[in-house]
Amino acid sequence: MTVTLDLPSDLERELANEASELKLPLAEYILRVLAFRPFLQHPPQTGLELVAYWESIGVVGSRPDITDSQEYARILRNQAENRERA
């Protein structure tokens, strides 16, 4: 379905900036924002509900290249602790 919207220029700029920060096309970013609405209206109340939500949107299992999550977390932490500060 195609929907054409006339957005106020300030809202368009704000959305475009957010999309740019995520390196996403504006249309894809807007789709993600709209798809996220149900989560904001009824946020998970427990850890189990949160994990179920992550599974439903494909976050769980989205990185098959990470075979040992704890080791991967250690590597990330080490990189963060030892990076050069600007």
Name the features.
86 residues, mainly alpha, 5 helices
Question: Would you kindly provide a written description of the structure presented here, covering whatever features stand out?
Answer:
59% of the residues lie in helices and 0% in strands. The relative contact order is 0.05. The longest helix has 13 residues, at 9-21. α1 (9-21) packs across α2. It is built from five helices and no strands. The mean pLDDT is 90.
**What is the C-alpha radius of gyration, as a whole number of Å?**
18 Å
- Give the helices and strands as they follow along the chain: HHHHH
Give the overall form. extended
Helicity, in percent? 55-70%
Low-confidence stretches: none
Number of E-state strands = 0
Helix- and strand-based class? Answer: mainly alpha
Mean pLDDT, all residues: 90
Total individual domains? 2
Largest sheet data: none
Figure out the total of helices.
Answer: 5
Percentage of β-strand residues: under 5%
For the termini, the CA-CA separation is 46 Å
Describe what is shown at a glance.
The protein has 86 residues and is mostly helical.
Task: Draw up the topology in text.
Elements lengths: L8 H13 L4 H10 L1 H5 L5 H10 L12 H13 L5
